[in-house]
Structures are given as C-alpha cells and as structure tokens.
Amino acid sequence: MSPDDSELMFELFERTPRQGPGSVESTRRALALLPREMRLERVLDLGCGSGASTLVLAAGTKAQITAVDRHAPFLATLRANAERQGLAARITTLVADMQDVAALGADFDLAWAEGSAYSIGFENALRRWRALLRPAGCLVVSELVWFTGRPSARARERFAIDYPDMCHETTRIEHAREAGYTPLGSFRLPASDWRTYYAGVRSALRDAIALHGERELYAALQRECELYDACGDEYGYVCLVLQSPGEAA
Ligand SMILES: C[S@@+](CC[C@H](N)C(=O)[O-])C[C@H]1O[C@@H](n2cnc3c(N)ncnc32)[C@H](O)[C@@H]1O
User: Fold this and answer.
1) Please, what are the averages of pLDDT over each run of 10 residues along the chain (249 residues)?
2) What domains appear along the chain, each with residue ranges and CATH number?
3) Which of 4, 38, 94, 130 has the fewest Cβ atoms within 10 Å of its own Cβ atom?
4) How far, in Å, is the centroid of ligand 1 from the Cα of 13?
5) Any atom of ligand 1 within 6 Å of the Cβ of 53
C-alpha cells in the first residue's frame, strides 16, 4: 500500500530542522517580552513539532516543560536533541491533542505555541488555552497574518484556498483581546526566519521527490515557497505575547 498524503507530509517534515517559520532569536525575543520577575516553573509547548522552540525555552528558563504534539516521531527527535544538550531532565514529551485541555493539565505559568494555533483555528485555540493557565499566566503564540491592508490578487487568491481564516495583524490582536487576554507585546518574525524555514523545506522536498516521485502534495508545497518569494512582504507571522486575567499568586 502506498503512503497517503498525510503520512508523506509528516515524513517530509521529519526531515526539516523545524516545522514552521521561527528561529532561536525570535523565541528568545518573545521570552524577553514576558513580565519581569514572572514565575516560570511550569511551561507547555503546544504543537511543538521536533521541539526547536522547546529547547530554547529549556535553555533560557529554569522551568519544567511539557512538550505536546500529536506526531510521536517529532517528539522522539526532541528527546534525542534534549539528551544531547543536557536538557532532558526538564522536558517531558506528551503525544496528545492540544485541543484536549483537560488531558493537558492546568495552572501553567506559560503556554507557548509557535505556528501551531492555526491548525485548530486561532480563535478556538486562544479560548480553549485560557483553561491551561494560572491567573496572570502568559500565552505566546505566533500566527500567519496580512501585513498589508491591500494584498495582491495572487496572494489573496492563494490564501482564500489555503487559509481562509487569514486576517490582518491588528485583527489578530483584537481576537486575542476578545478571548480575554491582555496583549503585552508583539513583533513580526523577520524574513530570515522564513528563508531558513523554506531552505529546510526545499531540501526535504528534493529528497522526498527523489524517493516518491512528483506528487500534488509536493507541488503545493513548492507553490507555497514560490508565493513567499514573490509576495513575502505582504504577509508573515506575528508573534503575540498575551496575559490571562487575574492576579499572580
Ligand atoms: C506548523 S508546525 C509547528 C511546529 C513547531 N512549533 C515549530 O515552530 O517548528 C505545527 C505542529 O502542530 C502539531 N499539531 C497540529 N495539530 C495538533 C493537535 N490538534 N494536537 C497536537 N499537535 C498538533 C503538528 O503535528 C505540528 O508539529
């Protein structure tokens, strides 16, 4: 039986250093926007993939981190890298659905979600994840947005198909307020985060095509890379640092 598209997609992203745009520098920049002196003992990394952000969080804090993903092989890579970097004692991996907040626990100081919220719907994610946080706990989330109010027809048409939930960065911040959070800060991921990410995707695509031949799934990823080359100044990821209501204990 030949592998289906979702198996091929996971296989391809098992070969990339990370599964979404981001970088060590961007993760550190977001960490630096958290309130000074904030208690950071229990942290969740939601949709962590192979754990590019998890390792930075572990190195940059003293917290115990639970790294959650539904794809077990990504977590195996994270555990191996954490061992190599001497960080394994503070990282627990959990194969789980990040929507299932009852299974994830509660009272976390910080929840982190780089490039993963979209997969369960951004607004749905923000509302559900409130239950994971202690009073005045924080959520850091990066999400695809328009940087322009007048995107080109090419970009608009592509996202109308690929991501109809796309909206302007100011609307995303409004969504965060409506979900009950106070925005503490935000920044756009730099173009270098995208270039590095797509270099990894392009390299994994070459390997995948050599292994399995041309497929529509690979052509779609190729189109995604090309759209960014042509229109990448019109859209990108905004990283939001948000605080849930309440007084810290
Ligand atoms: C775009 S990747 C981002 C991965 C990682 N945060 C990064 O920046 O490299 C999204 C990740 O979310 C995971 N994911 C998607 N839906 C999920 C769900 N419902 N529960 C748990 N993980 C999920 C995917 O397996 C994937 O690893």
Assistant:
1) 86 97 98 96 98 98 98 98 98 98 97 98 97 98 98 96 95 97 98 97 97 96 97 98 91
2) 20-149+164-193+233-243 (3.40.50.150)
3) 4
4) 11
5) yes
